[in-house]
Write a structure and sequence with these properties.
By secondary structure, the chain is α+β, with helices and mostly antiparallel strands. About 20% of the residues lie in helices and about 35% in strands. The longest helix has 15 residues. Bound molecules: coenzyme A (COA).
Length: about 150
């Protein structure tokens, strides 16, 4: 049994740091804009209340679709605890983020996806836009988007 809810962004720093910052300190997981009022963070907890999955939503237009009608929302800090991957935690957390957007009038949701996560986003209805690129620190990425 897992539960997904909106949380304070700071609660997700340990998980973000572990999964996305190579086990760095929680402060390493802070993202520019985390404290903006419109930014929303959702997280999944296991039956013991441990935070096992998270995602952040940031108001930001998609660089490849600047003319797209509707508000742009960028997904960042998407992570699932190692032992919980492949069990639908990420899908549920992402779904909560998409509902958040839908409840606020909908729009366009996008992310710079790490290549290994591409299929995960495709299953959630995202499609690739533009050319893939290599982030020297993190590795290959591809931009993905969908309507919400
Ligand atoms: C990508 C990620 C958030 C998906 O979360 P999740 O809870 O495993 O997602 P789900 O269980 O809903 O879906 C699993 C899908 O994720 C993808 N996936 C990517 N990396 C995976 C991994 N290490 N283990 C399992 N699935 C992984 C697979 O496509 C899988 O699809 P499949 O079941 O058809 O094989 C998670 O694997 C993760 O934290 N990965 C490392 C960090 C990362 O890449 N974050 C995304 C940055 S853009």
């Amino acid at each position: 049994m897992i539960e997904v809810s909106r949380v304070q962004v700071e609660e997700t720093y340990p998980l973000r740091a572990k999964v996305l910052r190579n086990g760095g300190p929680p402060e390493a997981a802070r993202l520019a804009g985390d404290d903006l009022p419109e930014v929303a963070t959702y997280a999944a907890r296991d039956a013991d209340g441990r935070l096992i999955g998270c995602v952040g939503l940031f108001p930001e237009a998609c660089p490849d679709l600047p003319e797209h009608p509707g508000k742009g929302w960028r997904i960042r800090g998407m992570a699932t605890e190692d032992g919980w991957r492949g069990k639908g935690v990420g899908a549920q957390v992402l779904e909560a983020a998409l509902e958040h957007v839908a409840e606020r009038g909908g729009g366009l949701v996008w992310c710079n996806a790490r290549t290994p996560a591409r299929r995960f986003y495709e299953r959630a209805g995202f499609e690739v836009i533009g050319e893939p690129w290599d982030d020297p620190e993190i590795g290959p990425h591809v931009r993905m988007w969908r309507r919400a």
